[in-house]
Amino acid sequence: MFHVKLPGNDAIARQPEEHHTTHRIKLPQRVVERPLRQVTRRLVMALLVLALTTFIVWIDRSGYNDNSDKQVDFLDAAYYATVTLSTTGYGDIVPYSDSARLTNILLITPLRVLFLIILVGTTLEVLTERTREEWRLSRWRSNLREHTVVVGFGTKGRSAIQTVCATGLKPEQIVVVDPSSKVVDAATAEGYAGVVGDATRSDVLLRAEVQRARQIIIATQRDDTAVLVALTARQLNRGAKIVAAVREEENAPLLRQSGADAVITSASAAGRLLGLSVLSPSAGMVMEDLIQQGSGLDLVERPVIKAEVGRGVRETEDLVVSVVRGHRVLGYDDPAVGKLQLTDRLITIVRVSPGSVVAPDARPLPPAG
């Protein structure tokens, strides 16, 4: 059973809060009023309509007849307005003059309809909420293409999302998968769609439309969970780029064999950055700047342009640190680089300002693990 709800944590391996057969998709919530505020607002509107109707009847009270005392005072006007708007209509107070009947046709009847719309509107809104949610989910699925699936919304997952968003990826193109409902709620509060469930299960990843994803980021707490997620994701999507993080370096080869294109050893990478900062705090700051996309110095990958074909690495305008040729990554000083080819890709260091976006033909690299 799947519950749909229409925009966390690295502990992806912990037991889900929900039963393992229940997975929910949550889309970012739209900004709506609180229920109590909505009810209060509608009640005030209904009272205003009632007061306006009472005033109209009282002004034209000479055209009404009360079967009890033949006169219509303000209380009688309020009573008539109440039973009329509620469509009760006891018939003890009735309009008998032409002007009063005309007023009922032109004013009282529209006010009666408005009064019913206000009161019934709340009920209708509740009844149609599920239909709107289903329609919104269906529209979301039909429009979801070439998106990014992030498994785990903890520190690593959040940082990964911030990095890809800094290059221009829109929040609606990100789907977070996590077993914790609270964690997914936090993701939807930031504008990302979320799926509550165990990402090692294929049905959960299918709910995230992983079969149509362009890239998959695995940021789980446990290495064995990351391996299972990579195996499942690669089985569902042969062409997606899968990047995963592991804690122990010895598990990196296993994760690559499971289908990951790139594996980041989080513990050793953090340790190397710590060691570099001890040896040279300035160098540590530069490395931290390089792996933080969106400001300062950014490490990006871009294709070779026609004007650069046949030139050497040092003859380009950008600061090139490596050349990607086929499946090999060659250093800028590697003799095998020779002259640049049209099929090469360059890994360059560029300076960007806050708010700027990396060019569409450039994609940021993950930090070396």
Description:
The protein is an alpha/beta fold. The chain is 42% helix and 19% strand. The protein is built from ten helices and 15 strands. It has helices at 35-59, 74-85, 98-143, 155-166, 181-189, 202-207, 223-236, 252-257, 266-279, 281-290; strands at 2-5, 23-26, 64-66, 93-95, 148-151, 174-178, 193-196, 215-218, 241-246, 262-265, 296-303, 319-325, 328-331, 345-352, 363-364. The strands form three sheets. Strands 1-2-7-6-5-8-9-10 form an eight-stranded mixed beta sheet, with helices on both faces. The protein has a five-stranded antiparallel beta sheet with strand order 13-12-14-11-15, with helices on one face. A two-stranded antiparallel ribbon has the order 3-4. Strand 8 (215-218), helix 7 (223-236) and strand 9 form a beta-alpha-beta unit. Helix 1 runs antiparallel to helix 3 (98-143) and helix 9 (266-279) crosses helix 10.
